[in-house]
Amino acid sequence: MRMIGDLVHKGGTQSGCEPSLWKLDLLLIPKFRELAAHEAAAADMLVIAAHDRESLTVTLQTWIETWPVRTAGRRGALVALLELGEGRTEVRAETLMFLRNAAETSQMDLFVQSFQPPARNDLLTAELIAQRAVAVSSVLDDILHHPAPAPRWGINE
After folding, report:
1. Mean pLDDT of all residues in the chain?
2. 63, 37 in Cβ contact below 8 A?
């Protein structure tokens, strides 16, 4: 979301960037799936962020398969940002093949970037969160107990 905001902000109105965001859950509804497919066909660039754990979700695959054919000679870019499953270092071959076929059928160039999920901090418990919530640092203590400034009595007040 931040990336899209930066694109629009830095490019201004001249960028021609008109982001359209779709939650995958909405694509379960046929009317929304159809609308999103038509927007995909008209887009110059599609960015899909998904997990590549066992396979792409059926919802995502179904939506991609419903994309209408793009206007002849009009290319686009399909960017896939894929979070790898635990212990994996590469995108699954089936996922890559599916995305390559979808990009080729839709006259799009495919760009894939995979990444590891952020490390989980399993040590973060409810008790630890509660302790942090009531902890007061020396800086916060100074702010909370700072004496109020003396009232100013000047000629103009």
Report:
1. 79
2. yes
